[in-house]
Amino acid sequence: MILTLLVFEGLVLFNVLADNAMEAIKDKVDISVYFKSNVAEDDVLNIKRILENFDEVKSVEYVSRDKALEIFKERHAGDEVITQTLAELDTNPLLASLNVKAKELSQYEEIASYLNSASLQGLVEKMTYAQNELVISRLESLVNGLNIGVLVFTLFLIF
User: At 159, is the pLDDT very low, low, confident or very high (cuts 50, 70, 90)?
Assistant: First the structure.
């Protein structure tokens, strides 16, 4: 009886830890979309609103050019060369961006296809999906494999 309870408790603990690990992995993935420097903030915010209405989208974070510069300066505060170079520039070299998180790893491709659409080609400077596509697909395979592994392990311990 005690052995059964210990096995059951271990199974529950394993499932909770596996679920938390998978969610932590999924939460680290996003698509960053950088807009050309001549794109108006209203246009970027309009695209943000459109993306927020997608069923696949969990969240969209807007990072203005000024905020991007502030974050960059904070990250490189100890680097004299970067600090001096930024001081010599007349304008902000960084671009406004949107950081898009999907509800599921498999939904990033659909979001990326919208962001690559012809209507946005003149606005988007760069998108990180192409760089992250392989990582996203591998993470998706890993998460699916872990889900199957947890299920098999659970069934094994039950029977």
Answer: low
